[in-house]
Design goal:
The protein is of the alpha+beta class. The chain has a domain at 10-158: 2-Layer Sandwich (60s Ribosomal Protein L30, Chain: A). The chain has ten helices and twelve strands. The chain has a six-stranded mixed β-sheet with strand order 1-2-3-6-4-5. Strand 1 (37-38) and strand 2 (46-50) form a beta hairpin. Helix 3 runs parallel beside helix 4 (111-128) and helix 7 (240-251) crosses helix 10. The longest helix has 18 residues, at 111-128. The radius of gyration is 20 Å and the shape is globular.
Length: 369
Amino acid sequence: MDYSSSGVDIDSESRAIASLIGALSSSSRESGVRGAPVPLPGGFGGIIEFGDSRLALATDGVGSKLQIANELGRLEGVGIDCVAMNVNDLICVGAEPLAFVDYIAVPETDPEVHAALGSSLSEACSMARVTLAGGETATLPGIVKELDMSGTALGWFPEGGEITGATLEVGDVIIGLPSSGIHSNGYTLVRAVVERSGLSLDSPAPFDVRHPGREVRRFPGASGEVSIGEVLLNPTRIYVDPVIDMINESRDGNGPCDVSDIKAIAHITGGGLSNLLRLHDSLGWHIGDPLPVPPEFGWISEIGDVANREMHRTFNMGMGLAIAVSKDSAVSVTNWISERLPGSRIVGEIVDNGRKVTHNDDQIVFDHY
């Protein structure tokens, strides 16, 4: 099995997005005016001018992970997924997340559903240290058949403080931050694999769920063995703490390095390791010592007969965020982060290989996003 055969073709999606961007008109605001666009390589967020500051915006949803949550009636973690997917993108441009707004679409109103979502969003915004500034709920019978949820996050950084990957150099070091599991992409393939397995989402997970640096969040009132559904709905990790603290303290001269030593940050979501290619036009990334892979990925690969390259093209495979730093600051930054997020460590380096991502598995090579 692969992502395309289950219903999502990443390459076709990339071409469609390129068509959309090509059809968009330029901004009506010119440089020097609040709201004027600031060019941003990588595309992890949009940046606009705002006096001597810059504002960053990111928008995303939970995706088809919601279909599993809807089927189980377990919405406790989906607000965390929604906030995480947005604020983690803002981090990648060096922006501190400030506020979040949500959009919820339902086929019919249900106070219990909305209460569960509100509680989840509140928890998520506390974790991300952002203000829940508002939102919109739409009841759309005939248009949506089940709950859908997305959101937008606003962040800021001082003028000239963007982190884009433009200063990357050969020999810079890649630090991997562990994921909490699948996060919020690739679930079209995940659901196809679950169907092939013949197991229900309530079935005990057919693998040892223990993994260094993460715990599976149990459903309220759950007891006994951890279910497949609990593993698959484990909320996306939010990286505001510790990454934004590291960036801000480094800007102030109190961090583990000078802020200029933080070269690039990549959120490993849809597209897997190919996301790294968004951050430089010519240099490549070699993952020579990858983080341990959570057990659910092995199960997905085995049951779905999914090739290792396809797994690394679709999922985070245990590394939810990658930070490239200068070689001289690599040890101090790694120590600083790993004290706050255990399991974080050096996984590779920046190389001059013609803009490719390579891996200790020589079958895993990506030359385009």
